[in-house]
Design a protein that fits this description.
The protein is an alpha/beta fold. Among the domains are: 35-89, Translation initiation factor 3 (IF-3), N-terminal domain (Ubiquitin-like (UB roll)); 114-194, 2-Layer Sandwich (Translation Initiation Factor IF3), CATH 3.30.110.10. The protein is 43% helix and 26% strand. It has five helices and eight strands. It has helices spanning 2-28, 56-65, 87-107, 124-139, 157-168, and strands at residues 42-47, 50-55, 69-74, 81-85, 114-119, 144-149, 172-180, 184-191. The strands form two sheets. It has a four-stranded mixed sheet, covered by helices on one side. The chain has a four-stranded mixed sheet with strand order 5-6-8-7. Strand 3 and strand 4 form a beta hairpin. Helix 4 (124-139) packs across helix 5 (157-168). The radius of gyration is 31 Å and the shape is rod-shaped. Belongs to the IF-3 family. One of its GO terms (molecular function) is translation initiation factor activity. It comes from Genlisea aurea.
């Protein structure tokens, strides 16, 4: 009788940790099931041609013939929904997109924009210097207010601003403007690498 109790105690002693580890693994795993991890007898396979109800073995065979992975994309459906693609490649591309998006968001400076001003008497050479300055500011994550002031009789502020905008339009997204007033005109710009401004 004591031998049987000892045997039960040993079985319970070894069984409990295994069960606990399994629950922990299921809880920690946030990734979809792949290939042999998929145990459903049949799956709904989604392809470019449509979706088909097939056995797990047939879906696996298709994936292997293409040297790709069978990936469960919806485990809650009955039967579960699967797709065939290179899981590691897709995961890598997604990580790169997220990294780039995060980098761009964090690089865009907050706060009021920097301001660059130029007058109607500015030479073309000096105007290009101002445009290069705006490019550097935008590249480093600043929003820039480009303001044309002190128009001349032959050159109004709107035309001045249009000339300046042409020097930076390949690198700039206009956030606001152009705003044209009697004695000045301005636009607020950001670099194109930070995406389209929110409306």
């Amino acid at each position: 009788h004591s031998v049987q109790l000892d045997a039960c105690h040993i079985v319970r002693h070894y069984a409990a940790p295994v069960q606990g580890n399994q629950k922990k693994e299921d809880k920690d795993s946030g990734e979809p099931k792949l290939n042999e991890q998929i145990t459903a007898p049949s799956v709904r396979l989604v392809t470019a041609e449509g979706h088909f109800l097939v056995s797990r073995y047939e879906a696996m065979a298709r994936a292997k013939s293409l040297n790709l992975d069978l990936v469960m994309v919806d485990a809650q459906a009955t039967p579960p929904v699967c797709k065939i693609f290179d899981f590691n490649k897709e995961k890598y591309l997604q990580q790169m997109k997220e990294k780039e998006r995060s980098k761009m968001k964090s690089a865009l400076k907050k706060g009021p924009p920097k301001e660059i001003r130029f007058t109607g008497k500015i030479t073309q050479k000096d105007l290009q210097v101002k445009a290069d300055m705006v490019r550097r500011l935008m590249e480093s994550g600043h929003r820039v207010k480009c303001t044309a002031i002190e128009p001349t009789e032959s050159l109004d502020s709107e035309t001045m601003l249009a000339r300046f905008s042409n020097l930076i339009d390949d690198a700039a997204h206009v956030e606001s403007g152009p705003c044209v007033e009697k004695k000045q005109a301005y636009i607020v710009v950001r670099h194109v690498k930070f995406g389209t401004p929110k409306k």
